[in-house]
Amino acid sequence: MTAGLRVELLRLRSRRAVLLLVLLGLLGCVLLIGFAVTDAVPPSAAELASAKAQVDQQLADPEFQQMLTECRTAVTAGGNSQFPADLDCDQMLPKAEYFVDWRAPDFVEQFRVLLLGITGILTLVFALAGVTFAGADWSSGSIGTQLLFESRRGRVFGSKLGAITLVALVIGAVGVLLAWGASYWMASKWGTTALIGNDPVTGAQVPLSRTDLVGRALRALALIGGGGAGGFALAMMFRSSLVAVGLVAGYGLVGEAVLRSVSSGVEPYLLSSRVAAFLDGQYLIYRYPNVCGTSGCEAEIIRISALQGGAYIGVLIVVVTVASLLLFRRRDVA
Amino acid sequence: MPEFVIETRGLRKSFRTRHGRQTAVDGLDLAVPAGGVHGFLGPNGSGKTTTIRMVLGLARADAGTVRLFGAEVPKSLPSVLGRVGAVVEQPRLFPGITGRRNLQVLARSINQDDRRVDAALAAVGLTDRAGDRYKAYSLGMKQRLAIAATLLKQPDLLVLDEPTNGLDPAGIREIRDLIRALAADGTTVLISSHILAEVQQVCDSVSIIGRGRLLAGGSVAEVLRSTTRPSEVRVRVPDPAAAAELLQGNGLTSRPDGELLLVGGAAEPAQITRLLAERGIYLSELTPVSADLESVFLQITEGEGL
Predict the structure, then answer these.
(1) Euclidean distance between CA atoms A26 and A67, whole angstroms
(2) Mutual orientation of helices A306-330 and A153-190 as an angle, nearest 10°?
(3) Domains and CATH numbers, chain B
(4) Which ipTM was obtained for this model?
(5) Looking at the partner chain, which of A4, A149, A332 has a beta carbon nearest the beta carbon of B106?
(6) Are B22 and B174 in contact (CB under 8 A)?
(7) ω into residue B74 within 30 of 0, thus cis?
(8) Which residues, numbered 41 to 70 in chain A, qualify as contacts with chain B under a Cβ-Cβ cut-off of 8 Å?
(9) Distance from CA of A153 to the nearest CA of B (A)
(10) How far apart are CA A153 and CA A229, in angstroms?
(11) At B287, is the secondary structure helix, strand, or coil?
(12) Rounded to the nearest 5°, which phi and psi values hold at A299?
């Protein structure tokens, strides 16, 4: 198996399409980080001066001054329908930060966002790399030549699957480290590195541990590896890159939309919901009742955990891979 | 080594087509003796390639048995595959990489190093073009590279399906010399081909199949002797029409062959010269026509309605 894996790694390295895809993927990651850094850079003196000028301009606006005066008068007099008694009128005063599109980078949030982007790019890249790696063997007919050198089809399949998954994991690890490093660098330079997250329902701040972030990184890595394995298994099953890509694109572009239109109850079972849950730790679906009561509309929250998301994706990849292997073992090769 | 390197018994394979199931191989009993060059002949669609694919484990038989070096295929194929080199139908390697890299990838899968790659490239005369990408090769070069790939294993059995397809005359000669050299070194070579003159030049034994069944087999000499067509002579005379009428009137057969006549049924050539001379028709050429593999092949396959 090890010799087979080495051979498949050599073959994979020799495939220009795969190299190009990986380079494009890494370029995409670097660009994403570049955009994030651009957003994280604090505003320049000129931008701050411009913001201050806008504040001064608004303060000098007679309409604004009149509204401020009305607010203060109304609050002092016990409030009215427009300005309640407990309103802090000074909150209406413009501040320079309102006119500057910048938030101090927060390590946890920055890592979360970058990791989502990088995982999306690399999962797609390695799904396509897996597809083209297997598809090229079938379209060139070279799979038949390979079987004349190693007739144990399970080994051939396993070596190829191992090679594409291994490369996906290695490049995925590079992507994850880039996301981690860039997020930490930005947060330590211009923001905060405190490990604090937000509760998705209440919005309250909750403390996080380093393990939470490592778990998130490992899940991202698993998804990138799974993308490579799944793409490879699909192309081996259909013996065609085009069919495999068409199937995935068809599901992504049309399939989910059709399923959603058929029933709103299907959302927890869609692949996109499960992937989101797996990557982000959980995925919340707000389901509102058809008829609201007098006290308002209370949404039912359906929570999909990372474990549920991971189990779903794992079972899907295992089923496709096993089916692909069984077909490869049984069917004739031209 | 067993007496036969390849043995099939009652081998059967059918395919599903739009018009129902089509039988490609129909109870084939094939025995390829160890040593020498064996020709595997048959008209297009007679089941040659399908048989080869089943022997090499690329296709599953519906029924029957296959043995390769005595090992049951596909069950024990891994134990003997290292002794077999094969090119089935067209050469099929990786188009985007160089000829050398193609061989390196295959060599590493059987734990061979680059020295073996260099030797294989030299054996087929591709050393100078080894750095070119495979997809830039001509068909003949692809064929030679595929043969080079088979040599990486230093096989005891070499299976070549239409090995001279796409080769120019010089290339055909190179491959023929290579096959002879390999056979002389003790490699058994199985050639499937439709170029019968080619096969006759290099083969020691042949199997002729039609509609998936064995029609004839044995050494080339045995198969040639098995022909029922009487021996003929080719004659050149000044008036072929008069000569033909005269010969047919004396119980011989004759048919035109360009400007010449093919005459059969004579006990010996002297009978023909005597008959013609008695009527003042004098020969300027008389050549005995020996049966060749092509005529035997045509006779057998025509007899089977193929």
Answers:
(1) 53
(2) 150
(3) 4-221 (3.40.50.300), 232-290 (3.30.70.100)
(4) 0.82
(5) A149
(6) no
(7) yes
(8) none
(9) 10
(10) 17
(11) strand
(12) -80, 145
Q: What is residue B1's predicted lDDT score, i.e. its pLDDT? A: 62
Q: Determine which helix (DSSP H) or strand (DSSP E) holds B84, and give its type and residue range.
A: strand B84-87
**Alpha-carbon torsion angle B130, B131, B136, B140, nearest 10:** -10
**pLDDT, tens only, A209-219:** 889 999 999 99
Q: Judge whether residue A310 has pLDDT over 60.
A: yes
Residue B228 has pLDDT above 60, yes or no: no
Examine the pLDDT at A143 and tell me if it is beyond 80. yes
CA A174, A176, A181 angle in degrees (round to 5)?
Answer: 90
Query: What pLDDT does residue B227 have?
Result: 65
Helices of type H across chain A: 2-14, 16-40, 45-59, 62-76, 107-140, 142-147, 153-190, 210-238, 241-250, 256-262, 271-280, 306-330
How far apart CA B137 and CA A81 sit, in angstroms, is 86
Instruction: Residue A149: list chain B partners with CB under 8 A.
Output: 81, 106, 109-110, 153
- Backbone φ and ψ for A209, nearest 5 degrees, come out as -110, 165
When CB atoms are compared, the residue of A4, A142, A144 closest to B58 is A144
> Any idea what the Cα angle at residue A169 is, between residues A167 and A173, rounded to 5°?
120
Distance separating alpha carbons of residues B43 and B298, to the nearest angstrom: 9
* Nearest-by-Cβ selection for A148 from B56, B101, B104: B56
Taking residues B67-94, what's their average pLDDT?
A: 93
Q: Do B78 and A7 touch (CB under 8 A)?
A: no
**What's the pLDDT at A151?**
94
pLDDT class of A125 with cuts at 50, 70, 90: very high
Longest alpha-carbon distance in chain B: 76
Question: What per-residue confidence (pLDDT) applies to B303?
Answer: 64
pLDDT at B67: 96
CA distance A230 to A313: 10
Q: Are B188 and B38 spatial neighbours (Cβ–Cβ below 8 Å)?
A: yes
Measured in angstroms, the CA of B17 and the nearest CA of chain A are apart by 15
Q: Read off the pLDDT band of B146 (50, 70, 90).
A: very high
Q: What is the pLDDT of residues A19-52, one digit of tens each?
A: 999 999 999 999 999 999 999 999 999 999 999 9
Interface contact flag, A16 B96, Cβ < 8 Å = yes
DSSP string, A168-220: HHHHHHHHHHHHHHHHHHHHHHHSB---EEE-TTT--EEE--HHHHHHHHHHH
Do residue B109 and residue A148 have CB atoms under 8 angstroms apart? no
Going by pLDDT thresholds of 50, 70 and 90, the confidence category of residue B268 is confident
d(CA A118, CA A220): 9
Residues from chain A contacting residue B105 (CB–CB below 8 Å): 7, 10-11, 14
Residues forming a β-bridge with B217:
B207
Which residues lie closer than 8 Å to A23 by C-beta, 6 or more apart? Answer: none
How far is the C-alpha of A40 from the C-alpha of A183, rounded, in Å? 10
Across chain A, mean pLDDT equals 92
Two structure tokens written together for A160? 């190829």
Helix (H) or strand (E) holding A255: none
